[in-house]
Amino acid sequence: MTTPTKYLLDESQLPKFWYNIAADLPKAPPPVLHPGTLQPVGPDDLAPLFPMELILQEVSTEREIEIPEPVREIYRLWRPAPLYRAHRLEKALGTPAKIFYKYEGVSPAGSHKPNTAVPQAFYNAQAGTKRLTTETGAGQWGTSLSFAGQLFGLEVLVFQVRVSYDQKPYRRAVMETYGARCLPSPSTETEYGRRVLAQRPDHPGSLGIAISEAVELAAQREDTKYALGSVLNHVLLHQTVIGLEAMEQLQMADAWPDVIVGATGGGSNFAGIAFPFIGHGLRGGARPRVVAVEPAACPSLTRGRYAYDFGDTAHLTPLTKMHTLGSTFTPPPFHAGGLRYHGMAPLVSHLKELGLIEAVAYTQTQCFEAGVLFARCEGIVPAPEANHAVKGAIEEALRCKREGRSETILFNLCGHGHFDMAAYQKYFAGELKDETYDERELAMALAGLPSVPEPA
């Protein structure tokens, strides 16, 4: 009898609740602080940017939060997503390990991002919001919010990091197809964007700058709110449908992960696959090793400092304690645009401090090499961001080969690379270079971190 390649759940098995890891943490994460008073922020401080339901999810310590039925109805367009056994990749590597991957590229936007875009649009529409502003790097998040906004009758304005805006015109075209307006960031439509361009007209942009522009416009109009695609607790919460489904599918395969691997930029797809399993371990179940894989050119977990910092470059956001390279740090223009962010999600950073996850960093050519091998074995061309998880999984499989260990490896293939073929063309032509950041700029950015006294 042949071993199955894919494990599918029925729509009736779609999770009814999101999982909130805050309920199971051995130590509560540090509070979010108001930048003026350095006191913990309250709901009123966040109300100009988010609807109250999302604010309540942001601070909740309830283990399960119900997924509204209108959200589940839209989820059924692509969820439950498939779990695959990578038989051919295992064979190519000659590893005794079993490799499973959860594939999130089946969503309308081609990535995991609609898992949170849909509920964010739903809660905003319920609260009477008419317009959403947001940022996007590679474009997966902007595409997803454009899709979700259209479903709930919301106007969507997307500030796309300029280097990605230029590199990935088809992502922009998809956003416009869904009805959104997409601008290169830094732009001339915000005071902060104009300030940045005045200092450097050819600025490549960064997620921190794009966030600043989106927040600036959201705060100016009562009918407008801001939506974020990663980093915040409620975003990570929504993504846990990935890991919750994977748990059911692995039981179908009579398997359980020894190692979980996820790509990390802001932390949402990583949290989505890993948090339910980490929580299961914290409640007394098996504890897998959990490996976060980040780009060597923007290594917040492996090179950043665990400190309070702003989430944006203009310092319009509250202060959160996270692994950060400094809010003024501009990552070099490597192709995994969704991973070009100066900070890591506070919850992911907290887990790193608690010793519950590990972190490694790889260059983009290493990751593209892994992605090409995966595509030639499994048929799916991964997004540059997902290539980091592929690289991490391959390294774990090769370790198993060296050690003669038949471990089970689970990773999240968070999106396809169909809009990233220019990057693959550069890779095959030998034109894709390993970008490096300026050590002096990093030192300056870290030196400029806000001064927040440690609690007594």
From TrEMBL:
- N6-(pyridoxal phosphate)lysine, modified sites: 113
Known pathway: Amino-acid biosynthesis; L-tryptophan biosynthesis; L-tryptophan from chorismate: step 5/5
Q: Which domain of life is it from?
A: Bacteria
Query: In this protein, which residues make up the domain named Tryptophan synthase beta chain-like PALP?
Result: 77-415
Names of required cofactors: pyridoxal 5'-phosphate
Q: Cite the entry's keywords alphabetically.
A: Amino-acid biosynthesis, Aromatic amino acid biosynthesis, Lyase, Pyridoxal phosphate, Tryptophan biosynthesis
Its transmembrane ranges are none
EC numbers for this chain: 4.2.1.20
Offer a single GO CC term for the protein: cytoplasm
Q: Tell me, what is one Gene Ontology molecular-function annotation carried by this entry? A: L-serine hydro-lyase (adding indole, L-tryptophan-forming) activity
Q: Please list the reactions this protein catalyses.
A: (1S,2R)-1-C-(indol-3-yl)glycerol 3-phosphate + L-serine = D-glyceraldehyde 3-phosphate + L-tryptophan + H2O
Do you know which SUPFAM superfamilies this protein is assigned to? Tryptophan synthase beta subunit-like PLP-dependent enzymes
Q: Which family does it belong to?
A: Belongs to the TrpB family.
Q: What does this protein do?
A: The beta subunit is responsible for the synthesis of L-tryptophan from indole and L-serine.
Fetch the HAMAP family from UniProt: Trp_synth_beta
Q: What is this protein called?
A: Tryptophan synthase beta chain
Native organism taxonomy: Bacteria, Pseudomonadati, Pseudomonadota, Betaproteobacteria, Burkholderiales
Q: Which gene encodes it?
A: trpB_2
